[in-house]
Design brief:
Helix content: 10-25%
Radius of gyration: 16 Å
Shape: globular
Number of helices: 4
Distance between the termini: 33 Å
Largest sheet: 8 strands, antiparallel
DNA sequence: TATGAGATCAACT
DNA sequence: GTTGATCTCATAC
């Protein structure tokens, strides 16, 4: 096993379109629970679907600060969703973490989710936050300090690309990235003809 | 397998 | 007052 490499601010201080695919296969840890990142989406400040598109507000303020911090927001009044702020200071772009393959702290995650099925523990942005216990209390925290720790992926992986999910603006941009073939995706990526998985 | 409603709130018009 | 980077459960086919 290669020694884990903790990702620091410089990793995030690049284009979301570079950082997002590089996060696939990385490990996200939060208070002893976590797993392999298998699905993310990039949101650039010039993108109408981004929360920062219409300028700074109380909710998105952290996106306008330096990279390497957590942007947590309330989704549909119910769920929390976790983003990593990227790009140089002030460019207001972020990567939404959409799904993990659980590897650590399974018992705690099952307890918080009230669910036993491993595949559903973290396969969705709201599910992952509930499993890890991420809430608005963690808004604005640095990603390279506890309770967060993010480790570089140990080697190359096959990254699938496709349109983002659940948005109504800029729906055609292929800014969703995932670990090809992973059963822990919130939704499968479109596969080449004839290779689609059943179930 | 697929579609639909409800939950519930901050931001925006 | 409406919308939305969601999820779960119920009902239909």
């Amino acid at each position: 096993m290669p020694r884990p490499v903790l990702l620091h601010q410089d990793f995030f201080a690049r284009s979301v379109h570079v950082v997002a695919p590089e996060l696939i296969g990385a490990t996200l840890m939060f208070k002893g629970a976590g797993g392999t990142i298998v699905e993310v989406e990039a949101y650039h400040h010039t993108d109408p679907a981004a929360h920062s598109f219409n300028g700074r507000t109380g909710r998105n303020a952290v996106m306008f600060g330096p990279p390497g911090y957590a942007y947590v927001y309330r989704s549909y009044g119910i769920h929390w969703c976790l983003n990593f702020v990227c790009e140089p200071d002030g460019s207001a772009s972020a990567v939404l973490i959409r799904a993990l393959e659980p590897t650590h702290g399974l018992a705690a995650m099952r307890r918080r989710r009230g669910l036993t099925e491993e595949r559903l523990l973290c396969s969705g942005p709201g599910r992952l936050c509930e499993a890890l216990g991420v809430t608005d209390k963690h808004y604005g925290l640095a990603l390279d300090q506890p309770p967060f720790a993010i480790f570089a992926r140990p080697g190359d992986v096959e990254v699938a690309v496709g349109p983002r999910i659940g948005i109504t603006k800029a729906v055609d941009h292929p800014w969703r990235y995932g670990l090809a073939g992973s059963p822990f995706l919130s939704k499968p990526f479109k596969s080449p003809a004839g290779t689609a998985r059943r179930r």
